[in-house]
Amino acid sequence: MHLILEMNKDAETSKKSVEKSEVNRVILTEGVKTTEFIATLENLQLELRDAVGNQFVSNCPEDLIPYLRDSFSLLAEKFFGKPAMPSVVVFPANAEEVQKVVKIANKYKIPIMPVTFGTNMAGTTIPSIEGCMILDLKRLDRIIEIDEESMTATIEPAVSFGRLDSEAKKHGLKTVCKVGGYTGSLVSNFVSANMRPYNARYGWTDPVVSLEVVLPNGELLRTGSQAVPGFEKVNPYVRLSFGPDLAGLFRGSLGAYGIVTKMVVRLYPIGERCEFLWYEFSSLEDLLNAVRKTQRNDIGNSVMGYNASHVYSVVADYGDRIDPEADKRIRSMIPESSWYLFIEIEGAAEKVQAEKNITDRICLKENNGKVVRFPSEKMMKYLQDFTTHRGEAVMHQFSGGYFGFWCCMPLSKIIPFIKEANPQLESLGLKDLIRPDEPMTVRWAIIPFDRGTTMVCGISIEYDPLDKALAEKLSQSIQPFIITMLKHGGTIPLTMQALTNMLLMPSYANIIRGIKKLLDPENILVPNKLC
Question: What is the pTM of this model?
């Protein structure tokens, strides 16, 4: 059953002068705890406009529809539910306005779905309850401070990796290697989604220092040393302080425990010299041996391993792929059985040279590798762009829809996992989007964190999102793939309701649910996502 409500379209029109010709229709489904909201829907919008300004509240369908999809949500309805139309979108400008909006939501019992750039690929910001409120944080976009002494930046949610990296370089600093490209939000990736930077040296060492969070009841919380009033200006640079690690509480919570409005994030020094090394191996076993040895010798910042299909997707752009001769020439340079290792080394010139000598010995002499030197300047540029997560290579890598999944497991489990997973994935019968007569091979990436103590193993698949039968086949493959992953000890950092119910031991799942109920008894923030 749906309740059709009429809402005033004109932000300047008072509730006494609603013209029937100037209304939008908003749909709310039964089952949402919105009795008061349904009765006073217009008052809700008036209060929101008072809180953030008339022009920063909208219930127009054209403003709401974009929040119903992301790159992955078409495949994940079984995990997240079908997208549901929100009733209103609000654009606060600062923490104080976020607090006001959250308190209004509590008053009217309307669920909130926070979102920043909406570029995630996991469906986690797609509303699943009709009539909810989208809280768009794009206006919270300040780089408040870059502190050279503590090597940190204090930022708001809508600061992207690219913006912060560009500003940090003016201070001789940089962000840790990126997650999701230069357009992604650090707060969304590091905190809400619990993503980790692709970095061997700094990766699993949490770059989050301290947080400012609006709790589900509208109260403001600061974690770490910021818990002392005034220290948000004097010394916000200490994470572990005054009892439990409350910053860690919000990691991976998908925004269900609170809305982060500021984050102090760790930056890293730019070395005197930086080199990018690429090696080709005839087998995955040789590549993994090289990874193990280089990491035990404390070598490299970013270290990434790829199969041939993944490398082809990086160095061949659309023009190459539609040109049969160019496509054939590039494929002949990248044998299907080969695996490729990228290592970025950085620091003092003497240190870089010493690490390069050791890396060459390990990769070339001890593990049968060879240096990658493509004859095309364009291909080498794409390779360089991709390894730094910027430039055209990242943009052209996927021509259609994207399905990605990654997990963390011991190095010794990777080969048996890939051997079992490959036939599963190839049985889907995927075809190349540009050359539909050819099969689409799975793209594998292998990345060591914390000097190889944890290995990330992930896939990415390109598909035609307009092919409903194929999309359904991919969707049906998710659960079997997860089962195979679990069999080999793989785990994922992202918690979501479906996986909480399916995977976790009861005591662990009960803690997640208990914290949610304690902080958010009205279930205002991100319902039906975390637990």
Answer: 0.85
